[in-house]
Specification:
With about 650 residues, the protein is an alpha+beta fold. The protein has 21 helices and 22 strands. The strands form five sheets. Strands 1, 2, 6, 7, 8, 9 and 20 form a seven-stranded mixed sheet that branches. A six-stranded antiparallel sheet has the order 14-15-16-17-13-18, with no helix packed on it. The chain has a four-stranded antiparallel sheet with strand order 11-10-19-12, with no helix packed on it. Helix 6 packs antiparallel against helix 8. Bound molecules: flavin-adenine dinucleotide. Flavin-adenine dinucleotide binds next to helix 1, strand 2, strand 12 and helix 9.
Length: about 650
């Protein structure tokens, strides 16, 4: 059957990429269809129920600043919140939450079901409709043909997915879900460059059979409990619970080594490359043979279940080895395994074959996002989904001839967002192992903090149409309060003649010798906003007490003002650096340039540029093997009008 309605954007897959893609496109007014295997698994977490962490938390805040669902759903579902790197600089501070997986799915589904312009449909997609070279829709398992002007594919680990437990293996998209085999075959026919990756998950345990008294308790941050979303409140959180820690030991390691000859990883059954930063326990024991013990976090999967996720023992060893290795650890001597651990191999597509909007170069209208682009992680998937959803909707606007400021696509710069870093890394460098976000990937990380994601992105999000009125109002109030408070501090002067020496020593550590404004004083390493304000409101400085004037905005506003003051030197220097490289970064390369005919470049560089066809000189410089010298030669060639 041909479904009667034509959609602007069809999203295939209801995981973290697909749900954000569908929500973003629909928020922008695109008539959007989300086609997925099973409505019950919308927003399902395939692996551990936790969101955020260093680098990943930054992405979640950016998704949130652009009106996405992940952060606010985590606020509604989070059962433990922590700020990681809390004692380090603000650039690397990151929020991490343990979520109740049932509450999380419900929070995502509620948003999807209540989103105007969005339709949900449960069916496996087996085929794509292609006319000429352009995608025009998708066909489901029972032959329903949905027409759409763009299609965003977010099939995660499902394309030709194969699960491994020991030497046994079978086809699946993840445990309990079917694989996408026909769609994988169809994509192979399109000859888009692809290969295999793998990832794994640990066995899950029944908490009633764990002796927690033998484990170390790990509570979350309780005073105050962090929130993820800029629109979130701690009062949204359900009950908070602790996690627990146990350790592997020499016996555990012996048991694991004893299973190596039946490991699909070591016997060559698995060919796909796995995530280096989230290795299986057998990989850890093999690679770090000298390490006597590894920490294992026992994380609750929810409030209404006894299921525990033992973080650190992801494995595809045979079940009998899993059983023994679990029971070799303190507190787990009688642990019952509820679900075996496994590894999964799946198809991914070389992201270098994508344009900087995530549209495939070879099939106009077809966008890829999430794990199928070679990444790993919910947060990386959500960020890509939101990005692809925005770009698919922008393309529809352009097809309609509707003018906007974006000209048919949008990509944040590397100095604007981790999202920009993620997309740029993927399309210019590709991947050799599952890609995950780290703060070290961002060269301008002092600017790309969690705390200022809204300041960096919400205005653009509003212009794109993904930020609703409530979020925009809240953001505008915060932005204005930050600017008012900064101005107030800059225009409030403290004169040593009016400030008794003992008061100066109490607040500032020493007597001041000449007049300073409050903003300058706040730049001093030992002077905090709160202590500075204790100078205020009294006889020394006559001005309103800002805590009262800022009302409930006080904490986030003060945070912004304080960071701006404390790091102003570094931030200004970084801004100068960005400005210096901006011209080179955004220098547009002609789309029809024949790199093979540029004699000044080596054959290798010519071939790489011809293959990847970067949009800008900045992107060209990040393609591996394209040296700064080659970039200078390319620039000279272009300036000569070559
Ligand atoms: P998914 O969450 O996989 O969602 C894909 C969606 O598409 C599903 O809803 C599926 O039903 C649907 N779908 C697929 N094909 C079709 C089709 N043909 N028709 C209709 N619907 C379709 N990440 C980490 O960061 N660390 C880890 O340790 C880790 N371990 C993992 C272990 C396992 C076993 C698995 C399966 C995943 C693991 N992940 C891990 C990855 C994490 O789950 C993914 O990064 C994330 O879920 C990717 O999101 P996604 O939206 O791209 O895809």
């Amino acid at each position: 059957m041909n479904y009667p309605q034509t959609f602007d954007v069809i999203v295939v897959g209801g995981g973290h990429a697909g749900t954000e893609a569908a929500l973003a496109a629909a928020r922008m007014g695109a008539q959007t269809l989300l086609l997925t295997h099973n409505i019950e698994t919308l927003g399902a977490m395939s692996c551990n129920p936790s969101i955020g962490g260093i680098g990943k938390g930054h992405l979640v805040k950016e998704v949130d600043a652009l009106g996405g669902a992940m952060a606010i759903a985590t606020d509604e579902a989070g059962i433990q919140f922590r700020i990681l790197n809390g004692s380090k600089g603000p650039a690397v501070r990151a929020t991490r939450a343990q979520a109740d997986r049932v509450l999380y799915k419900a929070a995502i589904r509620r948003r999807l079901e209540n989103q105007p312009n969005l339709w949900l449909f449960q069916q496996a997609v087996d085929d794509l409709l292609i006319e000429g070279d352009r995608v025009v829709g998708a066909v489901t398992q029972v032959g329903i043909a949905f027409r759409g002007r763009t299609v965003v594919l977010t099939a995660g680990t499902f394309l030709d997915g194969r699960i491994h437990v020991g030497l046994d293996n079978y086809q699946a998209g993840r445990a309990g879900d079917p694989p996408a085999v026909s769609l994988s075959a169809r994509l192979k026919e399109l000859k888009l460059p692809q290969a295999r990756l793998k990832t794994g998950t640990p066995p899950r345990l029944d908490g009633r059979t764990i002796d927690f008294s033998q484990c170390e308790e790990q509570p979350g941050d309780l005073e105050p409990v962090p929130v993820f979303s800029f629109m979130g409140r701690a009062s949204m959180h359900p009950r908070q619970v602790p996690c627990w820690i146990t350790h592997t030991n020499a016996r555990t390691h012996d048991i694991i080594r004893g299973g190596f000859d039946r490991s699909p990883m070591f016997t060559g059954k698995i060919e796909g490359v796995g995530p280096r930063y989230c290795p299986s326990v057998e990989d850890k024991i093999n690679r770090f043979a000298g390490k006597e013990s590894h920490q294992i976090f026992l994380e609750p999967e929810g409030l209404d279940t006894h299921e525990i996720y033992p973080n650190g023992i992801s494995t595809s060893l045979p079940f009998d080895v899993q059983y023994e290795l679990v029971r070799s650890m303190k507190g787990l001597e009688n642990a019952h395994i509820l679900r075996p651990g496994y590894a999964i191999e799946y198809d991914y597509f070389d992201p270098r074959a994508l344009k900087s909007s995530f549209e495939t170069r070879d099939v106009p209208g077809l966008f890829f996002a999430g794990q199928i682009n070679g990444t790993t992680g919910y947060e990386e998937a959500a960020a890509q989904g939101l990005f692809a959803g925005i770009n698919a909707a922008l393309q529809c606007r352009q097809l309609d001839g509707r003018a906007d400021d974006f000209g048919g696509s949008w990509l944040p710069r590397r100095d604007e967002a981790y999202l920009g870093v993620l997309v740029d890394d993927l399309i210019t460098k590709g991947i050799t192992e599952p890609y995950r976000m780290f703060t070290s990937r961002a060269e301008y990380r002092l600017q790309l903090r969690e705390d200022n994601a809204d300041m960096r992105l919400t205005e653009t999000g509003r212009a794109l149409g993904v930020v609703d009125d409530a979020q925009w109002d809240a953001f505008s109030r915060k932005r204005d309060a930050v600017s008012r408070e900064t101005e107030r501090l800059k225009s409030t002067w403290v004169n040593p003649r009016n400030l008794p020496a003992e008061e100066s020593v109490r607040v500032l550590g020493k007597a001041i010798e000449h007049e300073h404004n409050l903003f300058d004083l706040l730049r001093r390493p030992d002077v905090g906003y709160a202590s500075l304000m204790s100078l205020d409101g009294g006889k020394h400085v006559s001005i309103d007490v800002s805590r009262e004037t800022l009302g409930e905005l006080a904490a986030p506003v003060i945070e912004q003002v304080e960071i701006a003051a404390k790091y102003s030197g570094y931030i200004d220097r970084q801004r100068d650096e960005v400005e210096r490289s901006a011209h080179y970064e955004s220098f547009k390369l002609p789309p029809d340039l024949d790199y093979l005919q540029i004699p000044a470049l080596s054959i290798e560089v010519r071939q790489k540029l011809q293959k990847h066809r970067p949009d800008t000189l900045g992107q060209a410089g990040r393609i591996s093997g394209v040296t700064p010298a080659a970039i200078s030669l390319l620039l000279i060639h272009l300036k000569k009008g070559g």
